[in-house]
């Protein structure tokens, strides 16, 4: 052994990211964590386990029924040393729900760039860092950053600048650590830029953009890692370290389908899903007098019902919806939240948008141009949990393709007049309708989502006690 080797400690990190409540892979990953931790420990490694955020997703019935706390129970069984949050934790929970998401967690939540807007302080459920002191005295410090969406503000949180946060942390922490590791729910482009700007960051454990770095990526002095999404992979990082630096860094991933499975795995997952379905099914919503059918390619009764719900929710006189949102028909009879969860599993909010008439015309030019292409477009992400985008359907507004004229309740749209229309925040985030983001005055309703908006409308139109309010049009 060369002189100095004994002064280096060996560290192994097992990491996950963007699990999105895909429980089907949890039992195998949990077992892998246990066996791999034991094997690496025998080889002299200090083993750490981290999750990089977006562990929860409300498409999953257990997550929806428990506001994410059911998934935290599964995370507890992984025995993580630390986690950070993603946009699914932050933006699909109300402020109160996120305040209580980690009430029973057995791990710390590391987060440096989000504050409670009311107090101006770090949320009570988070901490700025966690330190790990190794057997050779080296001090590893872990920090966490999540993507700073402007919509954090609407949920009562303040998302601070990534670079400004790092500048502040590095200044405040000078002399308190030897090596710095970042849990980054920022995406691959941010990670690469951080590696270029901040040589202090020795390892960045990434996520958010669902990218896979099977053997890591070295940018200048920094090792970048990421394990794709949904528990398809588990990441492993190994290195030797002392106060001066990291050595022999290696990154690899293990495909979860290659991990050993046991006979009880499927039953364990099925039991969790059954619990979620049962809890949601207990929430009765309405007594619907007829079946509302959906169709991907055509206007249909169910999308019309959704349009009415959006207009009622926003007090707008017009609305737009895409048919691909509705994954199943709405049955006649008593409807519960479990059925609505399966019909509309998306993390998408209703949005009220105000536009001048000439901008409204331009928006519908964009919609008309893209509508046929979008019918079978395989839309992914941005809250959408379906397969295809589907057909755009309008209510209260119509477009004459021959004359290229737009009508608002049969009256020609006036260019210099202001109009308010009900849309989805999803339409602002996808690239097909740029007018919404460029000139729209957009007000997103974060008190619920398209599913809860429809549930409220159904409960008012078709109350459980029987009898309709009579406002539902044919």
Automatic annotation (TrEMBL):
One GO CC term on file: outer membrane-bounded periplasmic space
GO biological process: nucleotide catabolic process
Domain of life: Bacteria
Pfam families: 5_nucleotid_C, Metallophos
Signal peptide (residue range): none
Keywords: Hydrolase, Nucleotide-binding, Signal
Calcineurin-like phosphoesterase domain span: 13-211
Electron transport in keyword set: no
Keyword Hydrolase attributed: yes
Domain 5'-Nucleotidase C-terminal span(s) in chain numbering: 294-426
GO molecular function, one term: UDP-sugar diphosphatase activity
Record-linked PROSITE patterns: 5_NUCLEOTIDASE_1
Family: Belongs to the 5'-nucleotidase family.
PANTHER family per the UniProt record, alphabetical: 5'-NUCLEOTIDASE-RELATED (PTHR11575), 5-NUCLEOTIDASE FAMILY PROTEIN (PTHR11575:SF23)
Descriptive protein name: Metallophosphoesterase
Source organism of the structure: Fructilactobacillus florum DSM 22689 = JCM 16035
